[in-house]
Amino acid sequence: MQALYIGLGIAGAIVLLVLFFIVASFFNLYIQALFSGARVGITDLIGMKLRKVDARVVVYSRIRAVKAGLDIPTNKIETHYLAGGRVPAVINAIIAAKGARINLPWETATAIDLAGRDILDAVQTSVNPKIIDCPSANGPRATIDAVAKNGIQLKVKARVTVRTNIGRLVGGATEETIIARVGQGIVSTIGSAHDHKAVLENPDEISKKVMQSGLDAGSAFEILSIDIADIDVGDNIGAKLQTDQANANKQMAQAEAEKRRALAVAQEQEFKAEEQKNRAQVVLAEAEVPKAISEAFRSGRLGVLDYYKMQNLQADTSMRGSIAGEGGKA
Questions:
Q1: Contacts of 126 (CB under 8 A, 6+ apart)
Q2: For residue 84, how far is the Cα from the chain centroid?
Q3: Distance of alpha carbon 140 from alpha carbon 159, whole angstroms
Q4: How far apart, in Å, do the first and last CA atoms of the chain sit?
Q5: H or E segment to which residue 222 belongs
Q6: How confident is the model over 64-74, as pLDDT tens digits?
Q7: For residue 114, with 0-12 CB atoms within 10 Å meaning exposed, 13-18 middle and 19 or more buried, which class applies?
Q8: What is the pLDDT of residues 147-157, one digit of tens each?
Q9: Which DSSP letter does residue 220 get?
Q10: What is the spatial distance between Cα 65 and Cα 135, in angstroms, rounded to a whole number?
């Protein structure tokens, strides 16, 4: 029995020693939370250790929240930590929102954080609006190019002042959408202008028309103003298009003329071939004449005197033709 009591005493001592070290490891955090008015129980700290939660992050975040006048339960902070959220950033954002008198509940802040948005930057942008360059400085084009109805191109740079809309931050469109919509509005406004000079005289008309189209609908931002930072005259796109069209028409006309010339050449060659064919037929016909005369001699239809008369007639005709040809040359 004595050995049993000794064993139980040793086991109890080991348990007490382990508990002492556990309590000692959390004693500083417990004291800090207690004297800061943000009490966190020892059992809560031990549970965080078992759940592999960084107790320092949770305790320090709760202390900062309490000091700022916010009573956020420890279990909510721990839950957000386990969900992979950035607890310090959320606490900072809620404190900043409270100072700026912006309604930002804990549930909304954590949802925005878990959605991957920078909640602290969103709150800061709500207090201090930021400026977005349109087009973006890192984009493929340095200006927004649009063409008025008279064919003159205008190159525009705009600056958009926006403020974060906390309520639409989750699921709302980002800066890229704002830039695209503003660019679309500028192109549409300039394209509807009859003369580029009117746009140059009143560039603020672009801002007014673009603002009236409600470009911030469904986005995470509220557009406060659109300012035209720079506007330059570009190329005469209308004249270039007319020149290109004229060149295209010229090439089409040349191609059509070349087609007609090729057809004429081909037809000429066909006529020459037909002429050669006819001449060959004449030669063949002339070759049949001696055969016919021979046949006439054999059959008795043609006598010698008739033949000589025919020869004399041909000679006389040839002589007359020669004389007529010489007289015509004279």
A1: 97, 100, 102, 163, 164, 165, 166
A2: 34
A3: 17
A4: 168
A5: strand 221-236
A6: 888 888 888 88
A7: middle
A8: 888 888 889 99
A9: S
A10: 40
Q: What is the pLDDT of residues 228-273, one digit of tens each?
A: 888 888 888 888 888 888 899 999 999 999 999 999 998 888 888 8
Pick left, alpha or beta for residue 118 (phi over 0 → left; psi -120 to 50 → alpha; otherwise beta): beta
Q: Name the residue type at position 93.
A: A
Cβ 152 vs Cβ 233: under 8 Å: yes
Single-letter amino acid code for the residue at 133:
D
Closest C-alpha among 158, 160, 178, 180 to residue 228: 158
Distance between CA atoms of residues 38 and 47, nearest Å: 17
Q: State the pLDDT at residue 328.
A: 44
Provide the pLDDT confidence category of residue 21 given band limits of 50, 70 and 90: low
Token output for 174: 């980002």
CB 41 within 8 A of CB 48: no
Identify the CA nearest to 36 among candidates 70, 6, 7, 66: 66
